[in-house]
Specification:
- The chain has 14 helices and 13 strands.
- The protein is of the alpha/beta class.
- It folds into two domains: 8-199 and 391-406, Rossmann fold (3-Layer(aba) Sandwich); 207-387, Glycogen Phosphorylase B (Rossmann fold, 3-Layer(aba) Sandwich).
- Strands 3-2-1-4-5-6-7 form a seven-stranded parallel beta sheet. A six-stranded parallel beta sheet has the order 10-9-8-11-12-13, sandwiched between helices.
- Helix 7 crosses helix 12 (357-369).
- The two termini are 21 Å apart.
């Protein structure tokens, strides 16, 4: 049921540049929360780009996301944004939430205490562990002078997040049950956490309304899909190792990477990896495409891949990619990080194997060689997503949690 006027307002300090482009912000907070009477006022930094209209509530972009001084000034900018949100007529926040920011989390906790409203934390990725991974990468490069500030940032962020921000939160939203378990080890009570995995807007990913690509390069090929971003940190050259194994067994295999790397140096790296392996005939790297165009390539696929490196950074993640494949009715091969293993087991819509090129290649060959199995996987995916990982379902769960938080109860 749509409620035209919010009965509660949440001031959300976000890490993402504004206007938002991420589906979990646009769909979950911009569309689903208002249906349950919860408005979301976004506070953050301008990204210098045009974005879709924000229908969830107000939006206050103070400062520039790309500023060289952003790391120092962000808490001050967010404080000014909160002040503007507080002064806005008719939308004074009933709750202050910080998402994936440590220093602004300190500010938000203090402001919430002064105003007497609940303070909530939303962790969509393990930010402190991300700092540690960056620190260790710089150390391995032997860059001692660059390592010191990164080491200091990682140590301070760990102390602040786990020692002050999270202990002061009325509730903590996390991305997965694995992340909740990791935080519980650090002392956050499990009863104060709600896992909200990544979801899908099922209307956008309904293959009945997607026009298949007419790209002739796909004709007569056994198309294997990877949808989204590639990067060295994601070990995206693993995809090439898989197709290198597959081409020895199947000369018609074609890996379609419907996406690209986020930066020029990463783009050059991925193309160099393709050339080094002499995979030009077996890899189609489309570059960034409009979403509907990319999905047109996706629905031509016989199988889709979701390899996520194991480790502290990714084991607690909830990848969108796998759920998108399922919603599109594409049989999948994914590796065994906890959330992906759960999705594959619960949906019965794919194969879960270790992140090993031979194992992935064997799973793909099984899907290509057993069309009845692949068809059964494809048929199960959309229904499971609609019942468990659609933003409509997740929106109901999150709205119930906020209702309890604002009423002073445990969700």
């Amino acid at each position: 049921m749509h409620i035209p006027f919010p009965i509660a307002h949440i001031a959300c300090i976000v890490r993402d540049p504004l206007p938002p482009t991420r589906a979990d912000l646009l769909t979950l907070f911009g569309a689903e929360m208002p249906r349950h009477g919860i408005g979301a006022t976004l506070v953050g930094q301008a990204g210098g780009h045009a974005g879709p209209p924000w229908h969830g509530g107000g939006m206050y972009a103070v400062g520039r996301f790309t500023s060289r001084f952003a790391s120092l000034l962000t808490p001050l900018w967010d404080g000014l944004g909160l002040l503007r949100a507080w002064r806005a007529p008719g939308s004074r926040p009933d709750c202050i939430q910080v998402r994936d920011k440590v220093a602004s989390g300190v500010l938000a906790r203090i402001v919430a205490a002064v105003l007497g409203v609940p303070f909530v934390v939303w962790l969509s990725f393990p930010i402190v562990e991300g700092y540690a991974v960056r620190r260790d990468a710089i150390r391995r490069q032997g860059r001692v002078l660059a390592w010191l500030p990164h080491a200091l940032r990682a140590a301070v962020a760990r102390t602040v997040l786990y020692g002050f921000v999270l202990p002061g939160a009325r509730h903590v939203f996390v991305q997965s049950d694995a992340m909740a378990a990791a935080l519980a080890i650090r002392g956050v009570p499990r009863a104060r956490m709600t896992a909200v995995p990544m979801g899908v807007d099922t209307a956008l990913f309904d293959r009945r309304y997607i026009t298949p690509s007419l790209d002739p390069r796909l004709d007569g090929r056994h198309v294997v899909l990877y949808l989204g971003s590639v990067a060295q940190s994601r070990r995206s050259d693993f995809l090439l190792d898989v197709v290198a194994v597959l081409r020895t067994q199947d000369p018609d295999v074609l890996l379609v990477i419907a996406g690209d790397a986020p930066s020029p140096d990463e783009k050059a790296w991925m193309r160099a990896q393709i050339a080094r392996r002499a995979l030009g005939r077996h890899v189609l790297l489309t570059g960034w495409l409009p979403q509907r165009t990319a999905l047109g390539y996706a629905v031509r696929a016989h199988a889709a891949l979701s390899p996520i490196p194991r480790g502290a950074l990714f084991d607690v993640s909830s990848p969108t990619k796998l759920v998108e494949y399922l919603a599109l009715g594409i049989p999948c091969v994914a590796n065994d990080i906890p959330d992906q293993a759960h999705v594959i087991a619960a949906s019965g819509a794919g194969l879960c194997v270790p992140m090993d090129p031979a194992a992935f290649a064997a799973a793909v060959r099984r899907l290509l060689d057993e069309p009845l199995l692949a068809a059964a996987f494809a048929a199960r995916g959309p229904a499971w997503v609609a019942g468990h990982r659609s933003y409509a379902i997740l929106g109901q769960q999150v709205a119930r949690a906020y209702t309890a938080i604002l009423a002073g109860r445990a969700p």
